[in-house]
Automatic annotation (TrEMBL):
Boundaries of every HTH iclR-type domain copy: 11-73
Organism name: Desulfofundulus thermobenzoicus
GO terms, biological process: negative regulation of DNA-templated transcription
Record-given protein name: Glycerol operon regulatory protein
Keywords recorded for this protein, A-Z: DNA-binding, Transcription, Transcription regulation
Record PANTHER family: HELIX-TURN-HELIX TRANSCRIPTIONAL REGULATOR, ICLR FAMILY (PTHR30136), HTH-TYPE TRANSCRIPTIONAL REGULATOR RV1719 (PTHR30136:SF35)
Pfam families attached to this UniProt entry: HTH_IclR, IclR_C
Function: May be an activator protein for the gylABX operon.
Molecular functions (GO terms): DNA binding; DNA-binding transcription factor activity
Length: 263
């Protein structure tokens, strides 16, 4: 067997379920059980089990009048997540370039995915020694300024749910490992409007971050600067905070947020 064959293996039941979803279109938005069975050349009991599962999780629903199946609202939710991430990245990029041009340090944009922070955009700087963040890089929500900002500005109920699900493992000696201290830190971040972390995920690196809000005044992303602690002089950190706060507000306004609505 070739080394890549295992990678290419798929799960049959998932594949069949996705094939059902892929049959829906603008031209044919509804399908009956019999039609799907004929189209996919599968038995009605098999199709019915797959439809029942998709319906349970909101990926399809059944028209009470026609008794046919159509796409469910869960897909609308997922589309909204994708669109919001595309939108915030497109809006943030010019602001990120402006900030990077003024401080010549790494600038990056992050969102929440599940219980993690994910980087969705990164601008490099000219220095040899620098903060390096890969697009797609993930980290727990309690580690570093970028993640802490995303957690701090969640709605209280959502924030507590996320905190309760966290297992606080240390990355460095500076990592928060107490939920009581984490809650205190998050309250401080909400009060100040930004976060600064010193070596909490990577020793020797400093990160600063501010929230970006969407049109519903909910946190959509965190805008961040990362730099080595050797260049983290007070004057430079003050400039970074100033630029991030201005940039976060500018992006939020372009996302449709009225800053006065943010609590």
């Amino acid at each position: 067997m070739r080394a890549d064959e295992g990678y290419m293996k798929t799960v049959g039941a998932v594949e069949k379920a996705l094939n059902i979803l892929n049959r829906f279109s603008q031209q044919k938005p509804e399908w009956s059980l019999a039609e799907l069975a004929r189209e996919l050349e599968l038995s009605k009991p098999t199709i019915l089990r797959l439809l029942n599962t998709l319906e349970k999780y909101g990926y399809v629903s059944r028209n009470r009048v026609t008794r046919k199946y159509r796409l469910g609202m869960r897909l609308f939710d997922l589309v909204g997540i994708v669109l919001s991430q595309i939108e915030v990245r497109a809006v943030a990029l010019p602001v990120m370039r402006e900030i990077m041009g003024k401080v010549d340090e790494a600038v990056y944009l992050n969102v929440i995915s599940g219980e993690e922070r994910v980087c969705i955009e990164f601008l490099d700087c000219s220095h040899t020694i620098k903060a390096s963040v890969n697009i797609g890089q993930r980290s727990p929500l309690y580690v570093g300024a970028s993640a802490l900002v995303l957690l701090a500005f969640q709605k209280e109920r959502d924030r507590e749910k996320l905190i309760n699900g966290l297992e606080l493992k240390p990355f460095t000696d500076s990592t928060i490992t107490s939920k009581q201290k984490l809650r205190q830190r998050l309250e401080e971040i909400r009060r100040k409007g930004y976060a600064v972390s010193w070596g909490e995920r990577n020793a020797g690196l400093v990160s600063l971050s501010v929230p970006v809000f969407d049109r519903h005044a909910e946190v959509a992303a965190s805008l961040s600067i990362g730099l080595p602690d050797a260049r983290a002089e007070p004057e430079k950190l003050d400039l970074c905070v100033k630029l991030l706060l201005e940039g976060g507000k500018a992006i939020s306004r372009q996302m449709g947020c009225r800053i006065d609505d943010v609590h």
